Amino acid sequence: MAPATPVTLFYGTFVDLPRTKSSSKHELSIRHGALWVSTSTGRIAGSDWSITSEAQLQSLVRQHGWPSTLRIIRAREDLNEFFFPGFIDTHIHAPQYPNSGLFGSSTLLDWLETYTFPLESSLGNLSKARTAYDKVISRTLANGTTYASYFATIHVGATNLLATLAHTRGQRALIGRVCMDNPSFCPSYYTDGSAQESLSATKENIAHIHSLDSEGKLVKPILTPRFAPTCSPESLSSLGALAASHSPPLHIQTHISENKDEVSLVQSLFPDSESYADVYDKHALLTKRTILAHAVHLTQTEMDLIASRDAKVSHCPASNSALGSGIAPVRQLLESGVTVGLGTDVSGGYSPSILEAARQACLVSRLLRHTQQHSVTLAKEVKDGHEVLSVEEALYLGTRGGAAVVDMADDLGGFEEGMLFDTQLIRLGGVVPSSPLESELGSPVEKNDSVVDIFGWESWTERVHKWVWTGNDRNVRAVWVGGALVHSSEDKFRAGNGSESFLGALTGLVGGQDWLKYIAGGVGVGALGWVLGRKR
Amino acid sequence: MAPATPVTLFYGTFVDLPRTKSSSKHELSIRHGALWVSTSTGRIAGSDWSITSEAQLQSLVRQHGWPSTLRIIRAREDLNEFFFPGFIDTHIHAPQYPNSGLFGSSTLLDWLETYTFPLESSLGNLSKARTAYDKVISRTLANGTTYASYFATIHVGATNLLATLAHTRGQRALIGRVCMDNPSFCPSYYTDGSAQESLSATKENIAHIHSLDSEGKLVKPILTPRFAPTCSPESLSSLGALAASHSPPLHIQTHISENKDEVSLVQSLFPDSESYADVYDKHALLTKRTILAHAVHLTQTEMDLIASRDAKVSHCPASNSALGSGIAPVRQLLESGVTVGLGTDVSGGYSPSILEAARQACLVSRLLRHTQQHSVTLAKEVKDGHEVLSVEEALYLGTRGGAAVVDMADDLGGFEEGMLFDTQLIRLGGVVPSSPLESELGSPVEKNDSVVDIFGWESWTERVHKWVWTGNDRNVRAVWVGGALVHSSEDKFRAGNGSESFLGALTGLVGGQDWLKYIAGGVGVGALGWVLGRKR
Predict the structure, then answer these.
(1) Which distant-in-sequence residues (6+ apart) come within 8 Å of A364 by Cβ?
(2) What is the ipTM score, two decimals?
(3) pLDDT, tens digit (0-9, with 9 covering 90-100), for B218-251
(4) Which CATH architecture has domain B87-350+391-405?
(5) Inter-chain residue contact A366 with B439, CB threshold 8 Å
(6) Per-residue pLDDT reduced to its tens digit, A117-139
(7) Could you give the residue range(s) of every CATH 2.30.40.10 domain in chain A?
(8) CATH, domain range A7-85+415-494
């Protein structure tokens, strides 16, 4: 027998969304069995869905010649645990995280002035930036986000810090230094001095990220013109040219058609362009690696243009509702051939959770039939609910959709062999009543546990639906990126002391190679133990 | 000095919404000081907002001649704790709780057939009913709901059990046996045999509740014709007459204008009525003690009729979005003089939390401007955002609004002297980073804590906004109804051993009188201690 490839073995229930064309009906794939991940590549090396018992599992281990030190992570059936692909947040503003929940009754343009620009400008202070960025990475990981496309600020130092922190914590990320040089639409206290300054600062940030992660395995740069009104035509053009000068071309992210007043503003600022989308297209910013956030008020012509360039859309329903922007017509986008993922848009969005974004995507799609827009553009579909997103479809957008948006559809979003193991372990909890003392004690006895109530008669599909509608970060027990554990809500995942016996531990620490102390912050390692992050 | 009235003393930050006319702008009242509650009546006996220190607090105690056994409950400033009025859920279906999160992509009428009637009919089984009702009471209390207006099922036994459980657990509640006798719109397996059977079963339930709580201090009956299509005209009339035959008249609850197809159905079923609201009015069911759930598609004429009868509306935004029903025009209702409260509408609504309902009320009010309905009826207001509900307004609806809906506006919803002390203690948590090890350990260190992140620079108003947008049941540390502790997430609240020293404990158990073992379920009291419920 050939020497076995070092792997970690995962055993239990695996739920994902099979990759399909956008026009197909999405259904959950629910499989029980074993899956193993190469510890060197972090990719899925194989799976066997015929394994249904511990005896078969042991037989599988012997058959592969895996060593006695093999780590096995089990999803507990009695606690309704399952493995699910990590969420991909295709649009999030890291520096705005401290403002989560603060927006009053404002809409986009006054929200920027009142809440957002003042906070972002203050993140030039590296200490403040570190506090905010540590927290947003902690919170997104705790919510199962294995990949985030971050807007940072205009500050090179703080943006570099965000890249370093994501890299050290082991979160896959695109990191974008925000470009905004149009003095008419940027506050005087928070603006790039010129298109040239904007470009050279952006290049500094790219150089830092490339020095941090030369192969872009975990963290990559993304060009980030804030949105058309804050950028001079010169700046837009130079960023488009910069993207194309790299091989492969650099990622690009910006905003589009979030708010009706914004659309009018762009029309007045760029009278020579046929549309908002055309502004970006004219400056070579509509590419297959471009993420356009929002896309609430696009015309069909713009959707067709975006589809023809294979540019991607980040749907941010929580933010669109919170700021009263409107409801993005996701079905129309998909049927126009546009690839769509989900974004939290923190802090226009109030939540760092893609599960919440999936929930909101479902909700607003159910309200779409009541909008003016819908009655005009989709009259034929008003009656059949065609525009409604199912739970399965929302989960698809949050995993496979997001993977395609960040141009990693072959690498992320599911459990196929060869894919990177970016995964969350979800625990719904035991069947109600979880204890015969439930009635006596009320809810305190379960204060640390799931609020997803499983009564025992639900199918696996129904259990997943309950998770989507009533679950939260409490249900995320562990998160892996590229096979490395990057978050756990349980001490036993963090032990890292190699004490797990062969087939012994119900759960255990994956990997075991090169775990490093967290040093980016200059903070010493305390008594509480190991760090959830792997240097690579 | 006269002998002091036995009280419990509460000290810290108190947040509520001052009682105002519906047309006024709502603002938070944020006060720091001491408030005391009579242990015999459960009502607020006094308050002193000049108390700002422990020394002043001790002076207050001496001045009142309170004994050394006085219990003092402190809200911890360092953990951003505050007292807030208990939430009032004006519309919730207790038997549907196990279906929370299960509705697929259905709308009202097919949802009833597919998901709801089968589950409700199964609750005739008392064991199953007990499991569901225990859980829904636990979950609503844990989310700060001190008063719930419950729909039960058609079963007298199970409905009586719900009343007993709410009473024993100490939750204030209206309990309604559902009436549905129209064979054309009730499934054959789940229907009252006739209007007469419906009426007599309802009377049995009323008798049980009156025997349980003769003065209606905690639990009261509420007449519950499901909605017009499921009830014969004879049944509607007899319920209207039954309500009027009591003094004061019995409470009434039903549904109205949730869904457009439902509105059309009612028009066809009651051709002699001018409108859906008129159907209820013709049967004497529109009274000042009537709760109408949903009210999404009312005409202005119907709103005027409802206002003239002083009937109330329960706004259930999570449900209305989940089932695609539409967006209730809350501003228009309020300006028409209709009293509005919030409802979770479990399980059309997926969440048992009124905080979530408040959040959803804010969100959908921000989308209202994009609806067809809004553009027609409120054209003049489209531009000014007049229809948008502020966070403060949503909290008002969830407390004061709900109190008015259940006809207890003088007793519940705020901290005025003489009001019943139905209150939640909210903990947002310490300032970020909560520990210097945060960066090293990621979020696991705070796994049991709040996900509301306070950075230290937020005003109290902003902290409350963060709670509304990002908080959940983890922030509810304790809940009192009529001064009695009915839920706590902390063991120290439950100790109940009288060990708190004078001014000693940071937190402690209120009351101390007649705590009883939970016996309704026939379950023995286990080792874990006392029961969160007070027999009265």
Answers:
(1) A317, A320, A321, A327, A328, B321, B367
(2) 0.91
(3) 999 999 999 999 999 999 999 999 999 999 999 9
(4) Alpha-Beta Barrel (3.20)
(5) no
(6) 999 999 999 999 999 999 999 99
(7) 7-85+415-494
(8) 2.30.40.10
